[in-house]
Structure formats: C-alpha cells, structure tokens
Amino acid sequence: MNFDSTTTFLIVGAAIVVLLVLWAVLRAASRVSVAKEARDRAGEPYVANKERPYMKEAAPAADLAPPSADPDVAQPAVPVAEDFAGIAFPPRATDHGDLLTRLKGVGPKLAAMLNDQGITRYEQLASMDDSQLAALDARLGTFKGRLARDRVPEQARYLASGDTAGFEATFGKLGS
Q1: How far apart are CA 82 and CA 90, in angstroms?
Q2: What is the DSSP letter of 100?
Q3: 119 near 136, Cβ under 8 Å?
Q4: Which listed residue, of 22, 75, 119, 144, carries a Cα 20 to 30 Å from 8's Cα?
C-alpha cells in the first residue's frame, strides 16, 4: 500500500488525538481517586453549635487521654500550647497540620511563628475568642496586628468548615 503525505498526516494526527484523549481520561481518574482519598481521610464532619457553627465542641480536660496505638480508633481533641489549650479540633488519622500559608496574609515566616505557638490547624484559629487572639497577636513580633488586619480568623472559619466557595467569594482565589 502506498500512502501519500496527506494520509500519513491524518494517521499520525489521529494517533496523537487518541493519545491525548487517553491521557486526559487517566488524569481525570487519578484526580478522582486523590479526591476520594482526601474525603476518606477527612473523617467525620464538624459538629456545629450555636456559638461555634464552624467548630467541634471542646472536650473537657478530664476526657483527654494519650493517643492509642491503633490509627483507626478516633482520638480525643488534643490541647496545644498554654493559652490555646481549650481550643479543640476534630481528630484526624494523620498528625500533620493544615497548610496555613493558604490563608491570605500568612506567608511561610508567619506560618512558622504560628506553628511555634502551637497553632497548626484552621480550626484553632477559627475558634479563638478576642482575648486569645490578642494574646497570640502579642507574641507575633513584627507580624503584630496581621491576624486582625487580614481577617485571618474569618478566613480560617471558611477553611475549617470546608467552605472553599465562600472563602473565594469573600477573599478571592484560594492559594495553594
């Protein structure tokens, strides 16, 4: 069989289109599985109440126990550094905190300072009252006033409750 150049280009073009479609389908399937894993890791939804519609109830100090060795057993809320010990957050299967740099106005240095103060999750920032925020703000040195100016606790409430659309409507596109 003899092929002219037009037929050759059509065959090569069709092969490229098939490969691109196959790549797109496999990539979409991969994203779906990653999203499913993230949902599975997230655990139970937050328990809301009137005072904290975005927050899980704080566990009484007497109920706090050391974590069990079994990762499938739900763990109680764990207290953090000094003034922030009463702030509860839902237990998770992993011990890693949230990516605080996704909050507008929180860069790597401020995130590191917050981590040094024991703040590693959106829920912690979201549930702070004015006195706790003032105490934290006093410890932030050159970043003093940044939390209030950039409305970081309000941003954290959106992200703690999983309301990405509300966050983006109020504060703009969510960072990565």
Answers
A1: 19
A2: G
A3: yes
A4: 22
pLDDT tens profile 70-107: 555 555 444 444 545 455 555 444 456 888 999 998 99
Amino acid at 22: L
What would the pLDDT profile of 146-155 be if each residue is shown by its tens digit?
Answer: 999 999 999 9
57-90 as b/e: b if 16+ CB within 10 A: ebbeeeeeeeeeeeeeeebebebbeebbebbbbb
Place of tokens 């009137």: 50
Whether the Cβ atoms of residue 93 and residue 71 lie closer than 8 Å to each other: yes
Domain boundaries, the chain: 61-171
Task: Tell me the average pLDDT across 11-29.
Answer: 93
